[in-house]
Amino acid sequence: MKKLSILLLSICVLFLIGNSLCYSDENPPVLKQDEKKEIIFTGNEDFLLLPEKKENFIQKIERNITLFSDKIKEKFSIWLSRSTKYIEIMKDILIQKGLPEDLVYLPLIESGFNVNARSPAKAVGPWQFIESTGKRYGLIINWWVDERKDPIKSTEAAARYLSDLYKMFGDWSLALAAYNAGEGRVYKAVNRYGENDYWNLLGTKHLPRETKNYVPKFIAAITIAKQPENFGFDNLKEHQTLSYEEVIIPSPTDIDIIAKCAETNVEIIRELNPELKRWATPLNVKEYKIRIPYDIKEKFFENLEKIPLEKRFSYDTYTIKKGDTINKIAKTTKFSKTVLYEMNGKEIFHNPKPGATIKIPPKDKFTPLSEDIHQEKKVSKKNKSSKKVKMTEKNKNLASKKEASNKNKEIKKVKASKKIN
Questions:
Q1: Cα–Cα distance between 101 and 99 in angstroms, integer?
Q2: 119: how many CB neighbours lie within 10 A of its CB?
Q3: Domain residue spans of the chain
Q4: What is the three-class DSSP state of 401?
Q5: Which of 83, 117, 89, 114 is CA-nearest to residue 101?
Q6: d(Cα 134, Cα 124) in Å, to the nearest integer?
Q7: Alpha-carbon separation of residue 206 from 168, 187, 189, 200, 203 (angstroms)
Q8: How far is CA 213 from CA 21, 179, 180, 235, 408, in A?
Q9: Which residues make Cβ contacts (< 8 Å) with residue 28, sequence separation at least 6?
Q10: I want to staple 244 with a disulfide (CB 3.0 to 4.6 A). Which of 134, 168, 252, 291 is the partner?
């Protein structure tokens, strides 16, 4: 009996040791498929996403969980890691605007928290705003800056947009569907179906396929993000939350000079100010608010004071020659009319005066962006089309004049004939 007790005790000890090895921090447990169903995020009182756990809806979410945790696991790991840089700042903004904090996970499926993300539909930034919607919600988008890339300003814009969508539909699943497909499209779908229920709309033809999968995809992303270790995402690299202070620069200034005055590098300044598209802060803005590393403000201005105003903003020059037009100058300098207008305004080119000097971008600091090339092709195509229309109209006018002339000749002939008779 004593030997049996000792044997049983030994088995128990071995069992406990085995368990402690299996469930150590280095080897956390991964949930089985049936256990995953029990921890799928459905929302809470102020953020209902899936009111009823219907089996067919759960399956849609599970498919996306499998996508993220298996098929594109490496990519999703990068997204989760990158999110740690921005998530706390974004969450604070959402809370301040009175929105559910779990909306902070939306950039996971929109951009993977990549501030430079650009979709084929030309949606930009972590919240993937198209230009018209971004401008509608107060984001500045021009040749110099694109605030859709700014993680703070774009989150504030997204908060206002999501708030408006929720007021419109009174349901978070529909609001998110509208964020993906556009409020007009979802509004039409609801009217056609006659029911304010996203999940029931999935069985109709009223929503695009991507929108039908959008909320299940979002729920899957939240589910994993809240408990990554349960889905095999171990030892995720965490980034330090953005730490900065804001300063107002009194004149256009090169980014490398800002970095030098802040005693850091260009990469850090660009990371803190991703909305800046060019080599400097905008030339057409007298004062510009910029972010620099925390606790360097005093030293920054001390260093900036040592640099004369005229040396803070870099540019090359071109002297206008007799007979120059905006098109000739663009061809000579190899800078588009858009670039020349941005650097000098339009007025100087209305009547270019020989000997006058204009600004052009510094060749050693300016690199055209892919969007610049696309825009120039678009303008060129538009100009060709316009010329074609003008030529067609010109030809029509000539044909019309010729026809009128021929008719007049015929009338004169008839009149002459009558006189002879």
A1: 6
A2: 11
A3: 30-231, 244-311, 316-360, 371-421
A4: helix
A5: 89
A6: 9
A7: 18, 10, 5, 11, 9
A8: 39, 13, 10, 29, 70
A9: 229, 230, 234
A10: 291
Q: Which one of the listed residues 110, 147, 156, 342 is annotated catalytic? A: 110
336 three-class SS: coil
Query: From residue 317, how far is each of 8, 140, 336, 372 by CA, in Å?
Result: 90, 28, 15, 21
Question: Which pTM does this prediction carry?
Answer: 0.82
CATH label, 30-231, candidates 3.40.50.1980, 2.30.30.240, 3.30.390.10, 1.10.530.10: 1.10.530.10
pLDDT per residue as tens digits for the range 74-105: 999 999 999 999 999 999 999 999 999 999 99
Alpha carbons 66 and 274: distance in angstroms, whole number: 33
Percent of the chain predicted with pLDDT > 70: 81
* Residue 287, helix vs strand vs coil: coil
Rounded-to-10 torsion of CA 139, 143, 144, 147: 20
Distances (CA, A) of 6 to 1, 14, 20, 166, 404: 9, 12, 21, 66, 120
**Does the structural domain 316-360 have CATH classification 3.10.350.10?**
yes
Retrieve residue 296's tokens. Answer: 């360097």
List pLDDT tens digits, range 322-357.
Answer: 999 999 999 999 999 999 999 999 999 999 999 999
Report the Cα 20 to chain-centroid distance in Å: 46
Residue 290 near residue 264, CB atoms below 8 Å: no
Active site residue 101: no
User: φ and ψ at 117, to 5 degrees?
Assistant: -60, 140
Q: Which residues contact 313 (CB under 8 A, 6 or more apart)?
A: 251, 252, 253, 254, 280, 283
Structural tokens at position 23 = 């469930």
State CA 392 to chain mean position distance.
41
Residue type, 188: K
